[in-house]
Amino acid sequence: MLALPSSIIDPLWCQFAALIPPVTDTHPLRCHRPRIPDRIIFDKLIQVLVLGASYAKIADTTCSATTLRTRRDEWITAGIFEQLEQICLEFYDRIVGLDL
């Protein structure tokens, strides 16, 4: 289920994907399950934000609620959301204008 139209979500994803740091696999045997793609996690987090649903309600066979929370925490620690907030404020100021 789409929470936002692709005309909004795709440019947002492009901005967001550019901020995600590369992930290195540190498992010595490299035998664990493959990492869920960032785009799937991003789409699910947008659903959580837009629909106001819980992680458990949004989780399905593509990823679990635990994976959603873990990746969200990784991205928070990396400072991605703060950078994205600044980008959004700059674009809003350019388009509408901010009176701070």
From TrEMBL:
Q: What is this protein called?
A: Insertion element IS402-like domain-containing protein
Boundaries of every Insertion element IS402-like domain copy? 10-84
**Superkingdom of the source species:** Bacteria
Native organism is Corynebacterium glutamicum (strain ATCC 13032 / DSM 20300 / JCM 1318 / BCRC 11384 / CCUG 27702 / LMG 3730 / NBRC 12168 / NCIMB 10025 / NRRL B-2784 / 534)
**InterPro entries documented for this protein:** IS402-like_dom
